[in-house]
Design goal:
113 residues, alpha+beta
Length: 113
């Protein structure tokens, strides 16, 4: 891995604001072995405009779930979630991790009564 020897049994679940409305992407991140790896992944995603929030980052399973920002259409080019997925994958690969099992869902906001 990019930063450390293997450790076991550590799970990192990040808190999120709970207000999910929009595209939610799930990834499997390979190569994370310790808390430093989690911090590296978190920092790589924090720097991306495409990521609204990290919903879950699980070290033991490699599961990463993020909410994507809805970008405005620019100069006749329609926003697509695919370009944001590509940006997330590229950012993770640039810091030394592998990405697989990418999926995308859309979650509508739930109105509280």
């Amino acid at each position: 891995t990019p930063c450390c020897p293997a450790t076991s049994g550590v799970t990192e679940v990040l808190p999120f604001d709970g207000g999910i409305s929009g595209h939610v992407a799930k990834f499997h991140v390979g190569g994370m072995t310790c808390q430093s790896c989690v911090n590296t992944v978190r920092q790589a995603l924090t720097d991306l405009d495409e990521v609204a929030q990290i919903i879950r980052l699980d070290l033991s399973s490699g599961e990463l779930v993020v909410e994507l920002h809805k970008q405005d259409d620019v100069a006749g080019q329609r926003w697509t979630a695919e370009s944001d997925l590509r940006a997330v994958c590229n950012a993770l690969e640039e810091v030394g991790y592998t990405v697989s099992g990418v999926s995308l869902t859309y979650q509508e906001s739930k109105k509280s009564e």
